[in-house]
Amino acid sequence: MDVSKYRIVLPGTITGVSILAGLFAIFFVIIGRDNNGYYTLSCWLIIFAGIFDGLDGKVARLTRSSSEFGIQFDSIADVITFGTAASVVLFKQAFAERVADSPAYYLVPIIFLLCGAIRLARFNTTATTGAKKCFYGLPIPAAASAIMGLFLFFYALENIYGLSLSDEFKTRVTVFYTLLVSCLMVSLVEYSVTKNFFFNDILKHWFRSIIHLFIVLYLIIGYLWKDDAGTAFFFISVFYILYHLGRALIAFLKTKGKTAPEVRLEQE
Fold first, then answer.
1. Contact (Cβ atoms closer than 8 angstroms) between residue 47 and residue 148
2. Residue 22: which CATH number?
3. What is the pLDDT of residues 101-124, one digit of tens each?
4. CB under 8 Å to 174, separation ≥6 — which residues?
5. Global pTM?
6. Count of domains in the chain?
């Protein structure tokens, strides 16, 4: 029996698991309440799907089974899990009880889903079967995981650290954060592949590595001491988003500073 023809099954199975994670996230958030743990479980399902999102491509390259089918199947999984499922979790946790007063809240998950779909469509037009060094625009798995991390952060502040957050405050922060990551998905900001960003070039980027170390230590200590991995993950996602946004802003200002004298000389 020729086993090589079945190599495509393994990366496809990983992609299928990602789709099921999104489906069960929808199931759990539908039956979820504030006190039964299903809200946080739905968030973690999408986060874990995001963590393992790159595995299917890695496995496909290791088994030499990369294909156009794999790219398309992975994109379908992404729009289901990180687009549709994440939008449902976002709506149910943040806006379901507020749309009666303001139907405009429907727009927030709609914008997120559409921006994610546009991001995936743009990626597919330039996708290859090889490994990527960077992405243009925030990847949708990172965007969805960032929003889920925000919900876990809110949960930790209220249920672990005993803080009282008003619904109005949480709603406003969620709206701003969701619109921010939605805009970043369709932007041209260059984002590193997460594996390269967090694990490669440690000595080259010493400042970034120190931040990573503090976050990882907080992740371990927070989980062991307070059973709070969600807060650390939230900081990880915020750091990943803002680091690249800040780098793009600095590059833009440097470019603008170099071109400004040339413009003045031409005018003279």
1. yes
2. 1.20.120.1760
3. 899 999 999 999 999 999 999 888
4. 90, 94, 108, 147, 150
5. 0.83
6. 1
